[in-house]
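note to self: dont lose this again. the chain is below, predicted strucutre after it. 206 aa total, dont forget to put it in the shared folder this time
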Amino acid sequence: MKLPSISIATTSPTRLPSAASPIKQSTLPLISAASDQPPRTSHQVIPRLNPLRPPAGSTCGVSLETRAVHQHNQHRTSIMQRREYNRYHQVWQKPFYGTSMEKEEYRRDLREHLKRQMEEKRIPLSLRLSGRAKEGEDLREVDRLARSTELQQRLQHRKAMAAYRDDNKKLMEQKWQDSALARSRDILREKYRLRLNPINWTGTLK
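---
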């Protein structure tokens, strides 16, 4: 199985660097020793070079090596690593090895940060507590209304039962009075009959 051929159009033949024309260090950007210790305010930007396209030189293939460009990139990598190391350690160097003003500034920032954290924690806690208090007040109000409604219902029921009792008492008293009156009438009638006829035919008088 054959792979399709790919034709590369070139305008001019590629020249490879020879030993007669090496890449000089003077053609590369200078990296001074002062760049190892960057200032606190700004950092010097070190460009990264392409080994396949070195400055002031011809393009070379991947199989070749430009030592000056590789050295430049390695030096640049070490400087950037040193800067990152210094930046990382400057965070904790101030409170331990800084001046008194830097230490006080660090303590002030720490206090402000702690106050901000406490305030951020206090706000939702206070909102939650106020919500619980309002919920408790609402529940107490509902319970108070329920108790007052139940008390009113009990009072009304008691009044209704008292009126029912009084009505029953009146009916019973009226019934007793009617029964006593009827009994007295029967007795008078029997007495009147006995005067007329001494024989007790009904057997009510003994």
